[in-house]
Specification:
166 residues; alpha+beta; Chalcone isomerase; 5-stranded antiparallel sheet; globular
């Protein structure tokens, strides 16, 4: 009887965890992984080298992509709701011959414009996905605020640093 009671308690606990996990997965302000972003318009590429003060956080290669709504924002300077910008960040690897190449993916940073959901951050939501994962997130609530604090320097560009290079 005691074993049956223990199993029932464990089953109930597992059910609560499962319900919690699924509700977190579908949180209303959660930013989805930008599926297919590498087929979007390529905005620019660059490299943050070891001499940069931002190397520890942003070091390596990066590529920036924009969906069609974001492309209109790059053209006009005003990004509409539904604009998505993906910032693909990769390690920088140097071989024995001194050649530098892309290494493993570090993060995929995502900005999504939705003024009704993200009013307190200029209408933009921020997220980071770790490595090649489409589910493992790296940005917590306070870090999202720090993303916006940095992007607030570019308020005149609708909080977007990059510019489309034709």
């Amino acid at each position: 009887m005691k074993l049956k009671h223990t199993l029932l308690v464990l089953l109930a606990f597992a059910a609560v965890l499962l319900i919690n996990a699924s509700s977190m997965k579908n949180a209303p302000n959660e930013i989805p992984y930008p599926e297919g972003y590498r087929a979007w318009t390529h905005i620019k590429s660059g490299m943050v080298g070891p001499k940069s003060p931002m190397f520890n956080k942003l070091g390596g290669f990066y590529h920036i992509y924009a969906n069609e709504k974001a492309m209109e924002g790059y053209r006009t300077g005003k990004f509409a709701n539904g604009s998505v910008i993906a910032f693909d960040r990769l390690e920088m690897v140097e071989n024995d011959n001194g050649q530098i190449a892309e290494g493993n993916r570090r993060l995929v940073d995502v900005m999504i414009k939705d003024t009704s959901k993200y009013d307190s951050t200029g209408g933009w939501g921020f997220e980071e996905f770790k490595g090649n994962s489409v589910t493992e997130r790296a940005v917590m609530h306070m870090v999202k605020k720090s993303c916006f604090n940095c992007h607030s320097q570019k308020a005149q560009n609708d909080f977007v640093f990059s510019q489309f290079r034709k």
